[in-house]
Structures are given as C-alpha cells and as structure tokens.
Amino acid sequence: MTDTASDRPAAPGCPAHGGAVRMAGLEYQQTPSQLYRTLRREHGAVAPVLLDGDVPAWLVLGYTEVSYVVRHDELFARDSRRWNQWDSIPADWPLLPYVGYQPSVLFTEGEEHRRRAGVITHALEGIDQFQLARDCQYIADQLIGAFAGSGQAELMRAYAHAVPMRAAVQMCGMPHSGTDTEQFVDDLRISLDAAEGDDPVAAYARVGERLRRLVGEKREKPGPDVTSRMLSHPAGLTDEEVVQDLISVIAAAQQPTGNWIGNTLRLLLTDERFALNVSGGRLSVGEALNEVLWLDTPTQNFIGRWAVRDTQLGGRQIRAGDCLVLGLAAANTDPQIWPESHVGAENSAHLSFGNGEHRCPYPAPLLADVIARTAVETLLDRLPDLVLAVEPEELTWRPSIWMRGLTALPAEFTPAVH
C-alpha cells in the first residue's frame, strides 16, 4: 500500500500534484519493484514524489530517462543551490547530508568538477589492485577467524560491512581497526543510512571532524595512501576540499560495497542456480555480483540533479530548480530494456555506478569489485558449507529508500577447528 498525497492540493507550481507518492516511511522496501511497476503504470518514466516533510521532487524511473539526465549536465546539474525548495527546508532536515551544498566533488560542475575528479582518479590509480586483493583477503581472514569457531554469524555486521570499511579507511591512511575507526565508520553509516533515532546531521559533522584531523596528520607526515596522494597533487586542493572529497570516496567505498557483498551472499545462499555451481568454481560469484547490480543494486535511488532551466523529460514539464531523484534500481529493471524480465548476468550496462561526467571516477568501480569479489570468495573458501540460519523469506531489507541492503544475514556452518 503506497502512501499518496492525493487527499490534499499540491503547492502551486510544484511537481507534487495529486497522486504523488511519499518516499519516506514507505512499506514497500521488501519488494520495491512492485512500487516501481505501479509508478510506471500510473505516471510513466518520471513520477511526482514527496521527500521527507512532503518536499516535492521527481523520481526518474526509466533507463533511457536516467541515462539522458546524467549525460546532460547543461540541463540537469549537480549544484543543489539551484533548488527551488530551499525556503521550505528546515535546518534539521534528515536529507541534508545528501543535498546540502558542500565544497565537494559531488556538487562541482564543469572544469572545476574535472579538476576535482582528476585528483581522485590519480589518487585511486595509485592503489595496486593485487595488493588491495591481498589486503582484503587478510582483513576477511581476520574477521572470519573471529566467528569461525562458533558455527554461526550475523554476516552483515560481522563481515559484509566490515570488510569494505576496513579496506576503505586503510586505503585512506587510517588504522583499519580500533575504537576511533569504529566510531568514524558508525557515524558514516548514520549519515548515509540513518536508522530510527539516529541523528544523521550530527553524525555527518563528526565524520568531517575526523577527516580534518587525518588531513592534518598527512600534511605533516605523508604516506603511501589516497589522502597523501590527493594532498600532493599538482591541482593544489585545499585541506577542506580534500576533506570533502575524502568523504565522497570513503562513503562510496564503504556503504554501497558492503551492501553489494551482502546482497550477493544472499543471492548465492538462496538461489538454486548459484548453489549448484559455487562449490565447483569461481565463475558463478562474478555472475552473482553482476546480477545483484542489476536486480538489487546497493544504491537504489540517488538524490540527485537540479534542473538548470525549464525543460521536459519523459513527457513531464520540469521547472528550473526542480529536484530529480535518479531511480537507479527502477532504471536497471526497466521493462523497456528487459521486456521479458530476464536480466543477462553477463551484461554490464547497468547504471549502478552512474554514467556521464559524474559517474564513479575510474578506477573506483574496479576497486569496489576487487573488494566485493575477494570478500565473497574468501568467505566461501573458508566456510564451504555456509547456509542461511533462517528461511529466505524471513530476511528483511533495511527501511531505506536510498540504500538496498539487508538488516541482517544470519548464517550457520561447521565450526572451524583451530
């Protein structure tokens, strides 16, 4: 049952006309594909929605339409200061960490965006992918060793999120474990995917404070890490610019990759197509990773783009300053590109890493794949008889419209003897 705003008139000129769907507190999380089908049927490829506090926006559902938006920065730009709704946004609005303008690569445009993205690309290219795989295997082995003797584990917290978290902070020059790091990662999770009772705005502020200390430390004593390479780049980013861009790098490496691992483990443990093949070879792990990006993409909706001027999209009249939410999960499952609902696991034309100038900078997708693939393969190698500890239908998804990830993934296996 979707929650609509058809019982009251929309504000004059705003996109939320009768029938707009509230994207907060929805109960569709277990099967969002049903909501996307309903929205397509009722509204087409671009649907009017209401964000937290009934703030109006557009949800772009179509693969063709999302691709068009992300490839036309001159029409749909990233600088959120264009938004025509700022007068109605309270200071404690929960989505501020997503849309509040920051001097970050995420919100820059044109030549400035190319400069900032170039620094990130340079810093990430300095990562040896073979060394990263070895580091991730070591991290994975350490984590598995902590629960292998018990014969059971909750894999989301104990493993799926922990592997990319430790890998990401280590890449940036922080210790991969310890109280300080754990607090940092918890704040990062809250700012990206707040649960009931969390304060994402305060958590985001603490993330920034910790990274300012890290940047200060690396100015004094550089190392072979992403932060030091960003600081030494000829583009000459300020400390605050490096802090803001590090937030983007770490956030992209940690939360989405953790959910990618968790969603892939869920697929491997619940789908007979994979269960028959996993023990026989590695090929099915790669297929599962790719299929998840199509069908259960970790970042299911992304906010967003802001219309530079009045224009049309998917038959809708978009006003200058309107906010567009990119429906990545809806676009990846668009029946226009999969008319028979069959997703080819070998096809990698999904939009999970974005597209256009603001897509995940190279080689970030490759590094995420190294982390995710190593995490999944190491777990299956170490615990070959791993099975779910509950029935598949008992698994639940986090109540987030932005991230697609399980609340828990309880598993059982033969206890390892040390």
UniProtKB/TrEMBL annotation:
SUPFAM superfamilies: Cytochrome P450. Gene3D superfamilies: Cytochrome P450. InterPro entries: Cyt_P450_B, Cyt_P450_sf. One of its GO terms (molecular function) is oxidoreductase activity, acting on paired donors, with incorporation or reduction of molecular oxygen. Coiled coil: none annotated. Signal peptide: none annotated. Belongs to the cytochrome P450 family. This is Cytochrome P450.
